Amino acid sequence: MKAAERGAPSIRERLARTLAGWSLAWGLAVGVAVWFAAAHEVDELLDEALRSSGELLAAIVAQADAQAKPALPASRPANDDTPAADRAIPAGAVDEFAWQLVDAEGRVRQRSARAPAAAWHGAGHPGFSDAGDWRLYGVALPSGDMLYAAQTGAERREARLDVGLGAVGAMLAIGLLAHVWLRSRLRAEMQPVQALSERLAGLSFDASGAVVAPALGAAQRRELQPVHDALEALISRLAARVASEQAFAAHAAHALRTPLAGIDAQLAMALRECPPALAERLQRVRGAAHRLQGVVAALLGLFRAGAGPQRGAVDLAALLARLPTSALQVHVDESAWLDADADLLAAALVNLLDNAQRHGARQVWLEQPGPNRLRLRDDGPGIDAPRRAALQRALDEQAYEAGPGLGLVLADRVARAHGGRLALPAVDAGFTVELDLGPADTQAGAA
Description:
Shape: rod-shaped
Helix content: 40-55%
Distance between the termini: 44 Å
Oligomer: single chain
Number of helices: 10
Strand order of the largest sheet: 1-3-2-6-5-4
């Protein structure tokens, strides 16, 4: 991943963080709202239970009074002199409720174990009321007494807390599950964008300017269709531009080849007829014409409309014997054979040998370091390491405007047309170029 891509914000991550924040906020908001609603409902339910308990106790006491019997079993023996306010009835297993039976004068006649000895209310107070940390419900008896059923505030708070925490926890759990689900859905919905970028990365153009790699095809999401349409239009314009430029280069090369051949023929005749003083100058002109012919031949090969390299078995020594090498002394491996397009390879060699000569080399060695690979090394002054690295980077990125000369550019284009690349390995002396001509064509080799 490039540095710019690492530094750019991610749509998926930004949306995921937003979803996480909103899920948490939603869960808390809903949980708090449910907490208050549940707390209110809990209070109503507990009040209803308290009212029912009070009315039930009042009915029991009223029936007992009507039958002239003790309303509730006494908590002391009959001869006990304990004041009536201290006569407590055991509460049994139910600890959250308490009750008091208070006469008209505000004295406690009977009470449960958890009820206080002093009356909750001195005067009659029917219905719901609060006394300290107690929630009361009073019922007036036919005898004039008041029966108070009560529940502790702690019990109510505990009930509200249990219900509220359960509601908040449930909402947070739902929010978390929603976040996980939405994140997975977001990842799935972003896949078409990734697929589109992969298809774009695979696009390329052949020698005629037509798109080679698979087309973009129909958009996988309706929102991406305008992007697909714009990219398809851009690809069509680029293809037309590439085809136009390649056609122009091919026509220009064809137009130059005939006059160049005529110039070479005229120079050859002039060399035979001219005085010795002019022979050297004419020879240099003829050498320049040969180099120009090599460039034209390379252009014709590279822009051969709609055709790839015409591979075949190439005898390197025989090919080199047909090329103009001027004053260079070229050493070639006589056993070297390559699977390549002979015309394209010849054009690349002419330009590379011309580069070596123009940069001060006297000797060049042609070697075959591996299958379908060709190495050219010379005894020239070479270049420093930073410059070599910059040239290699420009060739790798095909940034030909960044510094490589025409010779290296044509050689790299020839290598890439074969499915390989051009490399500039580091050496101790001189300058070295390695042409990788891609995998050998087994069918051509067999033929």
